[in-house]
């Protein structure tokens, strides 16, 4: 079973567990050992969704533009908090605050993604596509294991949506605006 929406949920569950496990740990070495793979997976998961999932949601979701704008904005917040943890020694007050920020941003994002984007996709993508994308999602994660070759910088949400719409053959209006929201009335 490689349904992409199910694989995304699996990662989300891994995040919840891993953040909960951190609560039981103490001392910089223990915390760093537990946090580093979680931090890498947070970055990798967002990049994999942006590479494989959201470009397809854009093409068929009922409310895909808003869901994608929200998601990329949330991914930026999570990436920023993860990057902040890397600027401080594990276990320090600043590190703990950044981990807390990553956790809160990620928890809020997962709930929205699960209730909106994933639900929308299940309703509008056929099972064959969901399986095919699941295989691509796994391949992307394997290729970039540990965050190798991943760009962890912020993405401009509107530019990302515009780029995906252009690739999908949705042309922006003649007035040169991004067309965000402009396609809604056509659906
Ligand atoms: Fe996710
Ligand atoms: Fe996400």
UniProtKB/TrEMBL annotation:
Biased composition (Basic and acidic residues): 156-168
Organism domain of life: Bacteria
Hemerythrin-like domain segment(s): 4-117
Composition-biased stretches (Gly residues): 178-187
Region (Disordered): 146-187
Protein name: Hemerythrin domain-containing protein
Species of provenance: Amycolatopsis rubida
């Amino acid at each position: 079973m490689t349904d992409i929406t199910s694989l995304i949920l699996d990662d989300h569950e891994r995040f919840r567990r891993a953040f909960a496990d951190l609560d039981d740990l103490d001392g910089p070495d223990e915390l760093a050992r537990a946090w580093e793979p979680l931090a890498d997976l947070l970055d990798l998961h967002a990049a994999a969704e942006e590479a494989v999932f959201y470009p397809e949601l854009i093409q068929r979701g009922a409310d895909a533009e808003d869901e994608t704008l929200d998601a990329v904005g949330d991914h930026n917040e999570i990436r920023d908090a993860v990057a902040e943890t890397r600027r401080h020694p594990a276990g320090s007050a600043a590190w703990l605050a950044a981990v807390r920020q990553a956790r809160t941003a990620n928890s809020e994002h997962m709930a929205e993604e699960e209730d909106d984007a994933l639900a929308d996709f299940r309703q509008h993508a056929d099972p064959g596509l969901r399986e095919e994308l699941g295989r691509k999602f796994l391949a992307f994660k394997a290729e970039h294991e540990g965050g190798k070759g991943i760009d962890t910088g912020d993405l401009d949400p509107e530019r990302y949506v515009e780029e995906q719409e252009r690739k999908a053959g949705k042309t922006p209006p003649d007035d040169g605006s991004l067309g965000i929201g402009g396609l809604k009335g056509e659906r």
